[in-house]
Amino acid sequence: MRIVKQRLLEMLPDVCVFLDVDDLKTGKGAEYVDVSSITLIFCSVGYFASPNCMREILRTVVTSKPIITLLEPEPNHGGMTRDAIHDSLQRNSEPWEKAGIQHMSKYAMWGLEKEVASWGYHLPTSEQLQNALFSNEPIEWNRIGALQDITLRVLAQRLLPGQKEEVYVQGEIANQTVVWRPPVKQYHVFCSTANPGATALMCELGIHFGLSMEEHERHLSSSDKRRLYTSSDGEDMPQCDHFLLYLTDLTWTSGNESTAALANDVLRVMEAGVHMLLAHEMPGVGQEERFACPFNNFFACDHGATPQTLLHAGVYNSIATPLKGGAWRQASMVMLAHAIQAVERTEAKPRSRATAPAVRGHIALQHRKAPDQPPASYPAMTASSTADDVESSPHVTVVEHLATFDAGPLGLGISCSCDGVIVSSVDNESAASAQSVRVGDVVIAVSGQSTRGLSKDEVLRTVVAASRPLTLLLARPESGRGAHV
Question: Whose CA is closest to 233, among 251, 211, 217?
Fold first, then answer.
């Protein structure tokens, strides 16, 4: 939670924040609760299994201190639902055996029951702790920069005494103006009838920005800029700027026929060169009815996963727009609108079958056509080079590949600059070596999140925070010389 402390201090320089790993000098932490106005509790599996953390929440509840509850939405990072939090608190109150010794509860085993009594209070029940945690609407933690701004803004607003007016973060994406333009082709978006919720998402976007939905051939008019043109007719697919692949828990789990139909539509648009617009409903606050799920489910799930033919074709090579609920929905709608509008004002060229991605093990390789007469030498790429530099060089043929790591990537060394990530070393015995990652590779995306435009710290946080299995989308000059770092 050091990042929360750091960002709060940047936003509210006068606020005093205690973080035990930084500021605990003496005692066990309970005394710092007494001199704090509010206790921020980051709910995770590890929190409710820690006697020191439970000491802090017990002291907060018995002294009636206000609580701000921060929820971790990602299961891979210890995320918990309200029911899971209730169950953890309940288990802490039940008899517990350790090393052959039976204890009345975990609190008794930890010595917290006697400690609370020494404070002059009765031990709170699990229901009392649960009610204290959720007496106010919880705040959701986010690792994606644009969404994290909202988390910190909501948190800061809770800390401002008597604040009634709306608070904003400078540059917050939710406040950006969306300039809506007519489609380049006939339609903005194609929504497959085999993709549950895709049309409904476009309806939500239209309502959000006051756009009228048109599902038929458009006729240019003075009001054309305020219309969202969509189609679900297969014959219109080549005439759409984007093909929407709406990713939820239902996308690949609606039955064999539906999955096959959607997979067929996806392959058709990839062959036709229509842009694939990915939109992913992520778990979190306000997402209970949207069938949100972790991105990992699309690779392995008991109820159904992405067909292997699509994985081999690189269906997830582009960055998915993150869709969240609650206070974060506005930002998601803006990002989705920007993604729809981010289309070149020229006709897209169909992709031939000959250039479709090939597959070698776990690495999807996509080759771009080499120059007719390669130069004798290739320009060197430095540690400040970006993927844009690599791809824009007229003398370099670029190979893109996707490397997947189950629990790492162990042994992968990277050198970061403000504009990109360059692999600086690879252990010969590591998973990265097995995935054919080379020194000089430019990492252009981490588990679906682009590294372009990120600061050094943001890139490192993305790598650390990314769910496992972690995927790296890399680019390298085909000459094999790589980058000089």
Answer: 217
Residues 55 and 204 in one domain: no
Q: Which amino acid is at 343?
A: V
Enter the DSSP assignment of 371: P
What is the arrangement of strands in the sheet containing 139-140, beginning at the earlier edge strand?
Answer: 39-43, 67-71, 139-140
Give the 3-state secondary structure percentages of the chain, helix then strand then coil, rounded to 5: 35, 20, 45
CA dist., res. 224 & res. 222, Å (int): 6
Q: What are phi and psi of 327, to 5 degrees?
A: -65, -15
On whether residue 165 sits in a domain, the answer given is: no
**How far, CA to CA in Å, does 287 sit from each of 73, 81, 140, 254, 467?**
10, 12, 11, 19, 19
Same domain, 125 and 185: no
Residue 119 lies in a domain: yes
314 in the same domain as 271: yes
Clarify whether residues 463 and 417 are in a common domain: yes
Chain centroid to CA 472 = 14
Q: The domain that contains 445 carries what CATH number?
A: 2.30.42.10
Buried b / exposed e along 418-457 (16+ C-beta atoms within 10 A)? ebbbbbbebeeebbbebbbbbbbbbbbbbbbbebeebeee
In terms of pLDDT, which residue wins out, 385 or 322? 322
What's the CATH number where 251 sits?
3.40.50
Nearest to 121 by CA among 63, 67, 39, 66: 63
Do the domain assignments include residue 34?
A: yes
pLDDT for 350:
47
Number of domains in the chain: 3
Residue 380 carries which DSSP code?
A: P
What CA–CA distance (Å, rounded) separates 269 from 398? 23
pLDDT tens, residue by residue, 151-204: 999 999 998 877 667 788 888 898 888 889 999 999 999 999 999 999 999 999
| Rounded distance between C-alpha atoms, residue 183 and residue 341, angstroms | 8
Note the pLDDT of residue 237: 94
Name the residue among 472, 479, 387, 403 with its Cα closest to residue 435.
403
Q: Look at residue 365 and tell me if it is in a domain.
A: yes
Which among 468, 70, 449 is positioned nearest to 285, based on CA atoms?
Answer: 70
| One domain for residues 26 and 153 | yes
Does 373 share its domain with 337? no
**Structure-block tokens of residue 305:** 């996963």
Q: Is 172 exposed, middle or buried (0-12, 13-18, 19+ CB in 10 A)?
A: middle
**Average pLDDT of the residues of the chain:** 79
**Mean local confidence (pLDDT), 34-42:** 94
> Domain holding 47: CATH number?
3.40.50.10140
pLDDT tens for 42-74 read: 999 899 999 999 999 999 999 999 999 999 988
Residue 366: domain span:
358-477
